[in-house]
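User: Run a structure prediction on this.
Assistant: Running it now.
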Amino acid sequence: MTASVRDDLLAAGLAVFDRVGFEAATVAAIRTRARASNGSFFHVFGSKKELAGALFLEVLRHYHAAILAALDPGPDAEQGIDRLIRAHLDWVVNSRREARYLFEISRSEWGEDVRDAQRAQNARLAEGIERWRAPLVASGELLPMTPVMFVSQLIGPAQIFCRAYLAGRERTDPRIEADTLIACANRALRPFDRINKQ
C-alpha cells in the first residue's frame, strides 16, 4: 500500500471530521472522499478511531515543526517571543482546518491510543524550546520558571484567542492582535529592566 493512499485517507478524514465532527463521520464518507476502496481503508487503518489518532499525530507534528522553525536561527529573547507567538498565530490561520482538528475536534476517548506518541512529540517540542530558552534564563534575559509555565505564559493567551476564532465566536483574524499578545508575553516572561532597555 503506497504512502499516497494513507495520505489521501488522512486528508479525507480531516475534511470529513471538519465538516461533520468525529461522531457523525463514517468510514464510508472518508473512503468516498479519498476515492479508496473498503479494502484499501482497512489495509491502512483498523478503524475510524485509528485514522483519527494517526491524523492527530500528523497534525501535531506539522504544528510543532512550524513552532520550532521560528527558533531557527536562534533568536534573542525578544525576537524569540515575537517569532513563537507569530508562528502560532500564522499556523492557526493558514492551517485553520488542521488547527480546528487539533484544538477543537480531537477526542480524549480515542486519544489514549496515541498518548505515548503524543508525549514523545511534545517532549521533542519542549526540548527544542528549552535549547533556546535555557541560555536566556541563565543570562537573565528571560525569567526563571518551569518549561510548562513558560509555554503557558507564551502561547496560552494566544491559544485562548485562537480557540474563539476557530469556533467561530470571533471572526477577526487573530494575527491583528499579535503585537498586544507579544507585549503581554514580554511582560510575563522577561525582567522588567530588560524590557525597558529596548
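DSSP finds eleven helices and no strands in the chain.
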